[in-house]
Amino acid sequence: MDKFTAMQAFIRVVEAGNFSKAADTLEMPKPTVTRLIQSLESQLQTKLLNRTTRRVTVTQDGAAYYERALRVLNDIEELESGMSHAKANPRGRLRIDVSASLGCLVLIPALPDFHARYPDIQIDLGVTDRPVDLIGENIDCVLRAGVISDQSLVARRVAEVYYINAASPDYLKRHGRPQHPNDLERGNGHRVVGYFSARTGRMTTMDYVKGDERLEIDGHTLVAVNDSNAYVAAAVAGMGVLQAPSFMLQEHLNRGELEIVLADWCSDPIPLHVVYPPNRHLSAKLRVFVDWVAELFAKHDLLQRCSSLPAEHARIPGAGFTRDAAGARSATWSPAPAQSPPESPLRPQASAV
Question: Phi/psi class of residue 211: alpha, beta or left (left: φ > 0; alpha: ψ in -120 to 50)?
Fold first, then answer.
């Protein structure tokens, strides 16, 4: 028996809660994982796990062995990553999870730069709006916007996400342009694209700030989705007003598929974090990825201010104008000061849930 592999398998079974999920994350057949645990128990002459048809739990001896084994494996990883060659040339696999829109629009287009710097790091990228279990699914880190509800997680704030309101020209032609957030309530002639949590099914509200006035709007919804890309697609199709991060809407605004509405109302910016489990040693490969993400987002226009929207769409008094390398004119504006963000399924919490 390979003691090192058996320890890794045991730790994964404990964290995943069953043999099937552990086998998947280890990329081993389930019978192999079962044999490794049986061999480990036989060599130690003690029962480490209680097995049922639905769940695996650790015995008292198993809990003690888990803590010591985890410490040993972390020490080995720290020793290896501490070597000068490993620091200069980090290698290995990183399992990252990111929301669909942030992954497709920001992270993935920049990955060639990361791999040019670190060609020996393989990234397994989960792209989903579904909340993930960092430990149970063996994920090294996640990129998530929102409040950190689990204070045991380690989080680094790398940017802020700014929300704006928009609708398609076809929708505005049929329903007119809303003048106040209350216009979006049921019975006032407008409708919104709904977004509901994939985990709880709870519908999100739309939050507005103007001076000292703060509103939470439960809009009139005819269609609701639980995916950020589908959310934008429904608005482009003319199904209603949406409130979404500026980086998700910029290109649709540039192409005239959406237009800004309620420009004098904003919502609070939402912090964006890189989050990883507390029992996961910050290896050289994870450290360089976290630093690279922070650098990438620090340079990203739409993660540092609201938008570079076309002037004819922005309609914001006092907006300035800039031109890009191709000579295209765009309006710039700044958000209201940051407040504590409200919990919302559209603004996923960075928690191991």
Answer: left
